[in-house]
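Predict the 3D structure for this chain.
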Amino acid sequence: QLVESGGGLAQSGGSLTLSCAASGINSNYYAVAWFRQAPGKAREGVSCISPDNRVTYYTDSLKGRFAPSRNNDIDTWYLRMSSLGPEDTAVYYCAARLLSYCPYDFDYWGQGTQVTISA
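Done. Predicted structure below.
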């Protein structure tokens, strides 16, 4: 089970850090990705971090503003988001898969956390 937290309302230019807490899996062996879905738009891949901390960006334009990380000791992954703008408003999801690299499809999904950025 994956549970996201850390979403909320922020102002343009601000930062937020999302968390994804896992239960029932050994996070040491999972690739974990972040996706987002804005109202009326298709789901978009953000980034992924492999078990050995290699980072893949599914959307290159987010590189430099969004950074995934992990803490295997507490089975938690993070997405640090900075220089936020209204275009970043979306529901953010974490997803996990038992793989040593970052794929494009995942087996486990969280319920999502809403991020709203005001202009």
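The chain has no helices and eleven strands.
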